[in-house]
Structures are given as structure tokens and as C-alpha cells.
Amino acid sequence: MAKLKRFECEYCHQPFLSPYKKKFCTPVCLSKGRKKPEETLNGFIINKLLKNPKAIWKDRNASLREMGFAKKLIEKYPLKAFWVALPPKFDAESLTWYVAPQGRAYLKIEYAKFGLDLAPPIRHNVSNAKLGEDKVMSKKTTSIKDFLNHGSEKENN
Ligand SMILES: [Zn+2]
Known about the structure:
Radius of gyration: 22 Å
Bound molecules: zinc ion
Largest sheet: 2 strands, antiparallel
Shape: elongated
Number of strands: 2
Order of helices and strands: EEHHHHHHHHH
């Protein structure tokens, strides 16, 4: 039999014994003390743009499908601030609309407006860009003018 070890409950801070590492002494403390998982940007987009996100989360297939669409959208528009500012076009049942041509055009227009609203304007200098996310973003947002002139060509590939 495994040896009991002493742990302190992260919720009620009472010491308790357990044969394996545990953070909470009881299921009650677990449910009260467990941190809610931070909302991902995918989740945020689904909760914001869809009419009935709860129904989506209940349905495993639907949530996988919508998370996939959200991921595609984020690849194009990685800035969370954009998604926060975006006015939903209508109460959609699915993000399919946003990945289809009409929706893509809508996002493009909104992104251009969003870019124009940004202060200070999107930086042109990318020499200091770090690896990873920053680099991807700076590549996508060279300048608003470029975006307006060439954005459509690039995105219709
Ligand atoms: Zn406890």
C-alpha cells in the first residue's frame, strides 16, 4: 500500500493525508478552489459571435468544428483586441459564415476599420520583432495602406 503523504488543501488550507499528490482535500474543495481554465481566444470568439455558444459547448462535435473555424480566423487575425472590438454581424449558428467569402470580406473591412482606429498606428519597423507571435503579426500588418491595397489579393489565394 502506498505511503500516505501530508498535503495542504489549496482551498481550505487544512492539512490532509493522501497516497498521491493532491491539491484539495475533498471534492467540495476541488470544485470551489479549482481555477477556471482561462478562456482561450478560440473560446472567446465562439462565445462572442455565436447565437447559442452553450449549445456548441455541450456538443463535442460542434465544439471541435467551431474551434477549428476559430483557429483559422485567428491565423488571419491574431490580435485579441480586434476580436474584442469586432461588432458581430448577426447571431450566427456557426462560424462557417466567417470563414466563407462573405464573412471573410466582412472581417477584412472590419479589420481595416480597426486598424484605422488604432493609436498609435501599426508600427512599420519590424527590426526589433521577437521570434514567434510578434513576428507573425508584424508580417501580417506591415501597414494599413499595404493592407488596403494588397490585402485582398493575398487572402484570395
Ligand atoms: Zn479543503
